[in-house]
């Protein structure tokens, strides 16, 4: 997920993420897993605000991934 630089800092990322979480929950998902990079500090803060927790132990095929996070959906 990415937000245009012109739209960053205006809550667009939060709305997108909340919408994606609701969509997943509506489809019956109980968890959402994501991979990112800690250089993307605003994104990591957003994920934490949404309730994602850092996890370890899952291999990734992406070289730039240095953080993995999981959200347990409790709707």
TrEMBL record:
Which keywords belong to this entry? Transferase
Q: Which domain of life is it from?
A: Bacteria
Q: Work out whether the entry's keyword set contains Transport.
A: no
- N-acetyltransferase domain span: 1-74
Instruction: State the PROSITE patterns in the record.
Output: GNAT (PS51186)
Q: Spell out the protein name for this chain.
A: N-acetyltransferase GCN5
Keyword check for Transferase, yes or no: yes
Gene3D superfamilies from the xrefs? 3.40.630.30
Q: Which GO terms describe its molecular function?
A: N-acetyltransferase activity
CDD domains in UniProt: NAT_SF
- Pfam family, any one: Acetyltransf_1
């Amino acid at each position: 997920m990415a937000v245009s630089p012109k739209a960053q800092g205006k809550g667009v990322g939060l709305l997108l993420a909340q919408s994606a979480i609701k969509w997943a929950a509506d489809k019956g998902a109980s968890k959402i897993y994501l991979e990112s990079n800690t250089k993307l500090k605003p994104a990591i803060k957003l994920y934490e605000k949404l309730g994602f927790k850092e996890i370890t132990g899952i291999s990734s095929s992406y070289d730039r991934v240095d953080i993995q996070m999981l959200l347990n959906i409790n709707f």
